[in-house]
């Protein structure tokens, strides 16, 4: 409660009094046109077309003097099952990979497979993005998976189409598995410590998504929404599939924004991926990790990152948690950026704080007086 109280009594939080309807986001006027606030382009910048041909983790680390390997820990080490590592990443602002979940006795190897998806959800429609043109189309999941299996593992030939199923709906069976006790409850969505739990169910944002990719598909540079903590689990791979993560420390967020704009790029629109050469010239540490089957990547609040898929099919499930630490970052830093570029905040942070304090206050008032 203390953390939420400090947020409520801090900078400009007079919104706590009054009707919750006042927290509806205002209509945003068009941003002032300049190099930072240009409208989203219809495609990724040309230099965003990265090819992972010839990439290896040791070789990438050697290409930049400030490239550092993301720390890896096994989920069974130390007896914390990854929860201590999540705390370390969130409060320290340094990304971490908790590995070895695919060795767990309850890992659903059959359910986390392309063939299982084809049999059980193949007829469902998913939206896929062609990273060459940024155009989105709708296809059946089975069609995409069959096409992905015949797609070369890299786009070295500059093919005109390379599609990525981003922000796909997570199968209900996968959702249920998350709560079977394999992963620590502390890092799961809508559990203790996640302020989204205080929202009424009809207002709670859904952050649990799936990402189905193939080599040289990517997610451009971005931060997770509103200062939230990100979790990303690699559930399935084929033909050596993996994903390379390029990440900053939370404390370098401002420096990264400045560096990105020095390249003449609009960082807040999430339509550009930096090349290895651009990353190597950055005047701060860049953390690199290769996410393989069973790896859980924990993304600290305000951590810039881009993800490039490598090799064959990769299937990940991802979710976010909004902690009081992340909410503080959102109120003090992130929402100003969202207003500047007229971007919906999704989490409705001030309303979230209202409901959290209301619920905690009601809980305290209902306790018997000593």
Automatic annotation (TrEMBL):
Q: Which PROSITE patterns does this chain map to?
A: JMJC
Listed InterPro entries:
JmjC_dom (IPR003347)
Domain (JmjC): give its ranges.
172-338
Pfam families, A to Z = JmjC (PF02373)
- Disordered: region residues: 1-47
Q: What is this protein called?
A: JmjC domain-containing protein
């Amino acid at each position: 409660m203390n953390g939420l109280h400090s947020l409520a009594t801090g900078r400009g939080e007079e919104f706590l009094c009054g009707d919750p309807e006042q927290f509806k986001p205002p209509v945003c006027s068009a941003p002032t046109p300049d190099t930072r606030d240009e409208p989203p382009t219809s495609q990724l910048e040309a230099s965003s077309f990265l090819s992972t041909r010839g990439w290896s983790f040791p070789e990438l680390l050697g290409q930049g003097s400030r490239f550092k390997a993301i720390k890896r820990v096994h989920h069974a080490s130390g007896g914390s099952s990854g929860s201590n590592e999540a705390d370390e990443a969130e409060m320290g602002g340094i990304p971490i990979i908790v590995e070895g979940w695919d060795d767990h006795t309850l890992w659903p190897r059959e359910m986390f497979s392309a063939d299982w998806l084809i049999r059980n959800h193949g007829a469902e429609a998913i939206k896929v993005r062609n990273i060459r043109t940024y155009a989105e189309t709708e296809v059946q999941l089975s069609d995409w998976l069959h096409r992905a299996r015949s797609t070369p593992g890299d786009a070295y030939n500059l093919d005109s189409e390379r599609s990525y199923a981003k922000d796909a709906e997570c199968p209900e069976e996968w959702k249920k598995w998350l709560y079977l006790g394999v992963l620590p409850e502390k890092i799961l969505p809508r559990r203790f410590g996640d302020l989204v739990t205080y929202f009424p169910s009809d207002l709670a944002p859904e952050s649990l998504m799936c990402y189905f990719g193939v080599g040289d598909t990517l997610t451009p540079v971005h931060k997770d929404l509103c200062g939230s903590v990100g979790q990303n689990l690699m559930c399935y791979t084929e033909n050596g599939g993996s994903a390379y993560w390029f990440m900053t420390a939370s404390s370098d967020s401002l420096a990264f924004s400045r560096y990105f704009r020095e390249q003449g790029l609009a960082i807040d629109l999430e339509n550009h991926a930096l090349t290895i050469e651009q990353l190597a010239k950055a005047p701060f540490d860049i953390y690199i990790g290769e996410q393989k089957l069973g790896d859980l990547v924990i993304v600290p609040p305000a951590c810039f990152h881009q993800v490039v898929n490598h090799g064959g099919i990769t299937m990940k499930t991802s979710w976010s948690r909004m902690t009081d630490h992340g909410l503080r970052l959102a109120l003090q830093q992130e929402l100003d950026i969202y207003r500047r570029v007229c971007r919906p905040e999704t989490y409705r942070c001030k309303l979230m704080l209202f409901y959290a304090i209301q619920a905690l206050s009601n809980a305290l008032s209902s306790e018997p007086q000593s």
